[in-house]
Amino acid sequence: MEYEAAVQAAPPGWRHFNVSDLDRLSPSVRAHELARIPEEDRRRCEAGDPAAAERVLRAMFWTLVYHLEPRRWDALAEVEPISDALLAALPMAGRAVDVGAGSGRLTRHLASRCERVVAVDPSPDLLRILRGRLPQVHPIAAWADALPLADGWSGLTTACGALGPEPAILRELERVTARGGVIALINPEDGAWFERHGWERMRAEPAPPAPHERAIDEFFGPPAPPSELLLHRVG
Q: Which domains, from first to last, does the chain contain?
């Protein structure tokens, strides 16, 4: 998500964090994620400007949850299930990779229909949760713009709610997908962009949120289960 959009869209839970939490991120994650913060806001935040600190924390909200509060992230994923209609539209494949797999919301469905599944995610803590649930899946800690997979390895390359139309990431998704294979993105950022660029776009009635504690809504805002699928066949 673009910086300004992330600042504006931050859920109420951004107030749970403070600037010192940025130092709790691993050096590699911190460097990777702070690189998308404008230099002026970074400089003012480091100088103690409260307005800049708020903007940075808002923009970094999902990164902070993902890497510092993995159980909280996992609880949200359980509340927002993927609809059966979207899952049924995914093609079958012998080998699949789930990019930005998190704790395995989509991965579990791939594991039930594909012979071999790799789950890629930059958060070791979320991959530990995934590994405990899906021991048959091979987890790899990595970023979406540098997938440690051979060219054409996957017949089905997926991501759920994790990616947008970033050229470096899209090149990697296409690189690791075999000719004739499919890239399937569930609820990507800016679905209209993908549709304009020739991706098949499918919308479905979202699944009802799972029963959950009110605290999840207070932290993340109202649940929003995935409701669209973008498909691209690699030629």
A: 3-68 (no CATH), 75-233 (3.40.50.150)
